[in-house]
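Justification of resources, computational component.

The compute hours requested in this renewal are based largely on the per-chain cost of generating structure records like the one below. Each record pairs the submitted sequence with a full structure-token output. That output is archived, and it is also reused by downstream analysis tasks.
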Amino acid sequence: MINKPIIIISGEPYSIFFEILFKIYKSNFLKKYKYPIIVIGSERMMKNQMKKMKYNIEINLIDKNETLLNQLYKKKINLIDVEFKFNKTFDKISNKSNKYIKECFDIGLQLMKKKVGHGIINGPISKKHFLNKKFSGITEYISKKTNKKGNEVMLIYNKKLSVVPITTHIPLKNITKEITKSKIIKKIQIINNFFVKKLKKKPSFAITGLNPHCETTSLLSEEKNIIVPSVKLLKRKKIKIFGPISADTAFLPSNIKKYDVIIGMYHDQVLTPMKALYEFDAINITTGLDFIRISPDHGTNNEMLGKKLSDELSLKKSLSFFSEMHES
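The structure output for this chain reads:
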């Protein structure tokens, strides 16, 4: 029996994603990889970038309307071609790629709706250009497109330690309005269920406070009024959680040994120390959908485009996670 393929949506064409994809195919990584791979993107752009960076990998064009599993090869890049009109192989990111990126996502999500794929990996996109302030991140974009709005949770995963921000890509001035007991409880329950079902592990959580040292001189204490009651309720639901703890000590070596997941109140509160600790050895998983969606934990990195210096580790980790994950 052939395993369902991993669907890779290539994302922003002027990102480093094709480069790291080429590096994966030129390495020995895929020799023992058990899932077929389907890439959705521009054949012409892929060929042009491949030529410029002196890679030579055969492309197998496949028809999304035919039976996909009969068309797949292991050593070739199985590609669903999406037209992208461009003049320069390497260029600055702009709104010109928006229609192309949307079509790539539409095809990938349609394949998942038909239960063709085992899961999705997407390359990076520009929040400024593609999302155009309509969504705070690609996590929210995909949840809206799949009718799962409000269920999405962004998990930055590493085997040693993972992090979850309660709020994602929003301005700091808006954070206090977005932190609620219901949001904290729901997101932690979703992550707990994900660990139990997909990783066969009951996780240990730590949750940070919002304010420095979990203290505030204002009349409203988010720790006292929102976070502490949330923790008490989660404990009653048999979830192993500690806190709130001060964010400035949460990532000390003695602390991170105790926890599987650290929950933070906003993006940089937990993403900054996570990247300082593990660099590219982490992946971005969207939980709460009907399927697993992963993206490598790096951005478009347009400044490095075409230089052949980008690290493919996070894409390897993204692909590897599907092998580690339980099917249930």
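The mean pLDDT is 92. Residues 73 and 147 are 33 Å apart (CA to CA).
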